[in-house]
């Protein structure tokens, strides 16, 4: 399994898309308590559960990691860990995956400068206030001392294309 971590606009989601398109490595399906949006499919986009069911799953130790975001709970379950799967995760989730000590899990940190990430968010049309907020949040959340020891740090500043970064990650993953 491939675990991708990195600050906002570091390239995680794009790499995950290329891993699926080019190599058949698909993102795991996470569990959430939020309402299903139009067009979303249970078991494909998320596993949609009630808050009570989510709490029961916590009690039953089903999650690798979980968090609350915008008043809703999100988590990735242990039964989703599998060969040729990937997950995009935050620093706390990264620590949880590393703590499993599972040799089949390979962790990558996509490292891009604040300037590069800022430019990417502007290019993709993010709201200016949200950009500033995310950059400020990431300064704290992604401080080097808060990032768990990963298997590989990948420079995602744009010297290499997303496809080339994806190829590098896949090549490293296949060596394991």
How would you describe this structure to a colleague?
With 176 residues, this protein is α/β, with parallel strands linked by helices. It has two domains: 1-27 and 83-176, 3-Layer(aba) Sandwich (Rossmann fold); 29-80, Guanylate Kinase phosphate binding domain (2-Layer Sandwich), CATH 3.30.63.10. It contains six helices and nine strands; from the N terminus they run βαβββαβββαβααβα. The chain has helices spanning 12-23, 51-59, 91-99, 114-123, 128-141, 162-175, and strands spanning 2-5, 26-27, 31-32, 47-48, 63-69, 72-77, 85-89, 106-111, 152-155. A five-stranded parallel β-sheet has the order 2-7-1-8-9. Strands 4-3-6-5 form a four-stranded mixed β-sheet. Strand 5 and strand 6 form a beta hairpin. Helix 1 (12-23) crosses helix 6 and helix 4 runs antiparallel to helix 5 (128-141). The mean pLDDT is 91.
CATH class assignment of the largest domain: Alpha Beta
Per CATH, what is the topology of the largest domain?
A: Rossmann fold
User: Structural class from helices and strands?
Assistant: alpha/beta
Strand order of the largest sheet: 2-7-1-8-9
Percent of residues in helical segments? 25-40%
Radius of gyration over alpha carbons?
16 Å
Mean pLDDT: 91
Distance between the termini: 10 Å
When the domains are counted, the total is 2
Question: Main beta sheet, described?
Answer: 5 strands, parallel
Outline, from the CA principal axes?
A: globular
**Any idea what the CATH architecture of the largest domain is?**
3-Layer(aba) Sandwich
Number of strands: 9
- Taken in chain order, the helices and strands follow as EHEEEHEEEHEHHEH
CATH superfamily descriptor of the largest domain = P-loop containing nucleotide triphosphate hydrolases
Number of helices: 6
């Amino acid at each position: 399994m491939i675990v991708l971590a990195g600050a906002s606009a570091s390239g995680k989601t794009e790499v995950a898309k290329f891993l699926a398109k080019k190599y058949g490595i698909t993102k795991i399906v996470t569990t959430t308590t939020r309402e299903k949006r139009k067009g979303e499919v249970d078991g494909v986009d998320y596993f949609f559960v009630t808050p009570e069911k989510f709490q029961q799953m916590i009690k039953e130790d089903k999650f690798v990691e979980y968090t609350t975001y915008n008043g809703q709970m999100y988590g990735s379950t242990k039964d989703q860990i599998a060969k040729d799967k990937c997950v995009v995760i935050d620093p706390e989730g990264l620590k949880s995956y590393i703590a499993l000590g599972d040799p089949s899990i390979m962790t990558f940190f996509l490292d891009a400068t604040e300037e590069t990430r800022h430019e990417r968010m502007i290019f993709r049309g993010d709201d200016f206030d949200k950009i500033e907020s995310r950059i400020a949040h990431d300064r704290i959340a992604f401080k080097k001392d808060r990032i768990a020891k990963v298997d590989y740090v990948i420079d995602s500043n744009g010297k290499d294309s997303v496809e080339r970064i994806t190829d590098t990650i896949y090549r490293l993953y296949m060596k394991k």
